[in-house]
């Protein structure tokens, strides 16, 4: 058994790698993007980022020393959480990094639709001055239901209130938090959703949220509701979504995530006029690695002291 290893699968800047190296002399810091040195992979105790092929070997190795994985994303549905639990491995996510980016994305697509900008872009491509084809609404005073009131939901709620939008939230217990007029428990969602003009999904993917948005829930929304998904694609039953859009139960949907990615060319979503498709870009964040390193270093310093984390630890049972 050799010296324990911090394995950097996510490529970091050289000065960032040096920052990690200066923090501890007890570990070898293995920069997978740059170094050709050899290590015994079973000596890896900490991973920044997740190499699935290597990760599966470590999860299945009886001699693996893996203790903690820092994910680079907020969602962790691609990880085998049962195996992490069985092996006693801590998992943390990058929650909080994407809050502003996703909030701006949601408001951007809403303004694009409500102010007729999407139609104007289409008309511009045809060199048409067609003021009479542009429909518009006022976003201010609309009721928005944000399903998921974590870092992103709270940031979106705060931003949206700045535009005069009335923001309501859905979370597990119904506890009220920053950015919301009122919050409701998941079990009451279908009862209050009929009052909302806009529904935004920001939920992680779990067994409980898989296909949460289905024919039953879409039917509970009032006709003409706007639906935005920046959470997880598999939270939505795609066939039921297409049906709700085709029959105008939903007046518009802005979709950044999908059950199958990239979205297949034969998906009917491509051909619906009341859909805006973006290629999973809502979370793209300037200075992402600097923000990721901040979370990682806070956790690393705490981990080196007592084997626990400072923030963003995932409940392996709940999946978030």
From TrEMBL:
Signal peptide: none annotated. It comes from the Eukaryota. Keywords: NAD, Oxidoreductase. InterPro entries: D-isomer_2_OHA_DH_cat_dom, D-isomer_DH_NAD-bd, NAD(P)-bd_dom_sf. The keyword Phosphoprotein does not apply. It holds the Pfam family 2-Hacid_dh. This is Uncharacterized protein. It comes from Spodoptera exigua (Beet armyworm). The lineage of its organism: Eukaryota, Metazoa, Ecdysozoa, Arthropoda, Hexapoda.
């Amino acid at each position: 058994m050799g010296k324990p290893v911090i394995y950097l699968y996510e490529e970091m800047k050289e000065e960032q790698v040096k920052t990690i190296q200066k923090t501890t002399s007890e570990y070898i810091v293995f920069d997978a993007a740059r170094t050709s040195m050899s290590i015994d992979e079973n000596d890896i105790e900490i991973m920044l980022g997740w190499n699935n092929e290597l990760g599966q070997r470590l999860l299945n190795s009886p001699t693996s020393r893996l203790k903690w994985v820092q994910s680079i994303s907020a969602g962790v549905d691609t990880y085998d959480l049962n195996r992490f639990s069985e092996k006693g491995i801590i998992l943390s996510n990058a929650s909080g990094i994407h809050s502003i980016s996703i909030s701006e994305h949601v408001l951007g697509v809403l303004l694009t639709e409500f102010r007729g900008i999407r139609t104007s872009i289409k008309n511009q491509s045809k060199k048409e001055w067609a003021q009479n084809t542009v429909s518009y609404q006022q976003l201010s005073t609309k009721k928005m239901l944000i399903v998921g009131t974590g870092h992103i939901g709270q940031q979106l709620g705060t931003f949206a209130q700045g535009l005069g939008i009335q923001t309501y939230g859905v979370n597990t217990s119904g506890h009220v938090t920053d950015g919301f007029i009122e919050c409701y428990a998941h079990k009451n969602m279908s009862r209050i959703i009929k009052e909302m003009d806009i529904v935004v999904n920001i939920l992680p993917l779990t067994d409980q949220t898989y296909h949460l948005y289905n024919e039953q829930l879409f039917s509970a929304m009032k006709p003409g509701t706007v639906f935005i998904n920046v959470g997880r694609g598999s939270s939505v039953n795609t066939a039921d979504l297409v049906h709700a859009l085709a029959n105008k139960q939903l007046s518009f949907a802005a979709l950044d995530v999908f059950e199958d990615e990239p979205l297949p060319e034969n998906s009917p979503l491509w051909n619906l006029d009341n859909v805006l498709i973006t290629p999973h870009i809502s979370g793209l964040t300037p200075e992402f690695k600097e923000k990721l390193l901040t979370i990682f270093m806070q956790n690393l310093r705490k981990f080196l002291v007592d084997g626990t984390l400072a923030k963003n630890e995932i409940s392996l049972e709940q999946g978030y």
